[in-house]
Specification:
Number of helices: 18
Number of strands: 6
Radius of gyration: 31 Å
Helix content: 55-70%
Oligomer: single chain
């Protein structure tokens, strides 16, 4: 046990003191803070102060469109109305759009007994915010005109077309009810799943690279004089895993500081509220450790059979495949977290850590499903460790020749 702790301490301090750890630990929160800041600053006045012209053969409809556009306080639009508009008026307004005097031209042509024909012309094809506002103003104006034409007074028509907002809540099985947001739940689960999958794979590969480097430098020949191969492997897994937990803890503290900043408060307003349950807070480190042990023990055994890091890179798709599968199921899991596909994927060890957090973002699964998921993960880790420890015991001292499949089978038999 003493040898395992010494090796774990060496691995931990070597990586924590490294330049890469410091740059990623400090750099990633800084990048996210920059993203939040840029998102906030760039969203100020987005789609505002547009100069738009409305040309129509129906003056009442054109005036109602203008009224709706000016009623949007965030748009701060300048609206010019040409109604009834002649072909010459439309051509003149179109030329102003072409030379940049106007940002856009909405042309509406009404025909009795037929659906109105509408076109919107602008220099920018990507201004979807202004296009959406114009579409909404046109649809509301058409509905309002039809209601008033049918005999309803203007005040009643305005009250009828006025939308309402819905506040959503989630009822938990313990009887508590908390405010929720489908969009926030999706992004919470998505971000936590990305963080979990990214860190487990990165640190699993770090274990493998460390083995390759020490195997190439022949330092194993010295280390084996004071520790058994099993102790070396256990120390590496513990030390590098502790580095991962340390980095995640620092990131979470930095994320909390970013989320309470004025920039983040301005961006994450309205219905976009994030609620972290106690189950998510407790199970995140559990699934990180289990996922990390599964991937790192697999790659430790594979790394012992490789001679160079380039050869090790050939096994990278093995780590990426479960992640691709997990995120391919994201819409299925978020939309119906209790479907057969969601439950099965949360029991399958390679995808269990990611899928479980996607499920928890929508609804906390029953306790027995957590028990089965964690139990299957622990069992698979034991099997992979058994396999990898035997490859590791012989492979770390094999140099100069790529191991073939028959040789790997002999290694397993010898050990």
């Amino acid at each position: 046990m003493h040898s395992i702790l010494l090796i774990a301490r060496r691995e931990y301090l070597e990586q924590v003191r490294g330049r890469a750890f410091k740059m990623t630990t400090i750099g990633l929160p800084a990048v996210f803070a920059l993203i939040v800041g840029v998102s906030y600053l760039s969203s100020l006045g987005l789609g505002a102060n547009r100069r738009v012209a409305v040309a129509s053969n129906d003056p009442a409809l054109a005036e109602q469109i203008r009224h709706n556009l000016l009623g949007d306080k965030q748009a701060k639009a300048t609206v010019i109305v040409a109604a009834p508009a002649t072909p010459q008026d439309r051509a003149l307004l179109l030329s102003k759009v072409e030379d940049g005097t106007l940002d856009g031209l909405l042309s509406v042509e009404t025909t009795p007994g037929k659906q109105p024909a509408a076109t919107y012309t602008s220099q920018s094809a990507g201004d979807f915010i202004t296009t959406g506002r114009i579409r909404s103003a046109l649809n509301h104006a058409l509905l309002d005109e039809r209601l008033t034409t049918g005999g309803m007074n203007q005040v009643a028509a305005d009250a009828l077309v006025e939308g309402i907002s819905i506040t959503t809540y989630q009822a938990h099985k313990d009887g508590t009810v908390v405010r929720s947001s489908a969009e926030a739940s999706f992004w919470k689960g998505y971000i936590m799943a990305i963080l979990l999958s990214m860190t487990t794979m990165i640190y699993g590969m770090n274990v493998a690279r460390s083995i390759i480097q020490e195997k190439t430098s022949r330092i194993f020949e010295v280390m084996l004089s004071i520790a058994r191969p099993a102790d070396l492997l256990a120390g590496k897994l513990i030390g590098v895993g502790a580095v991962g937990l340390t980095q995640i803890a620092i990131w979470l503290v930095a994320a909390a500081a970013i989320l309470v900043s004025p920039f983040a408060s301005a961006v994450l307003t309205g219905d976009f509220t994030v609620h972290i349950s106690w189950a998510e807070a407790v199970l995140f480190p559990v699934y990180f450790v289990l996922g990390y042990l599964l991937y790192s023990s697999l790659f430790a055994g594979l790394a012992a059979t490789c001679e160079t890091e380039q050869e090790l890179q050939m096994y990278t798709p093995l780590a990426a495949a479960p992640t691709w599968l997990s995120f391919a199921l994201i819409l299925v899991v978020i939309n119906d977290s209790n479907s057969i596909w969601s439950v099965a994927a949360s029991f399958f060890p390679p995808t269990a850590p990611v899928i479980m957090f996607l499920r928890m973002a929508a609804e906390i699964p029953p306790a027995w499903q957590f028990a089965v998921s964690i139990g299957l993960l622990a069992l698979s880790i034991w099997g992979v460790l058994w396999f990898s420890a035997r490859l590791y015991r012989i492979g770390i001292l094999m140099y100069g020749k790529r191991a073939t499949l028959p040789e790997l089978l002999r290694w397993l038999r010898y050990s």
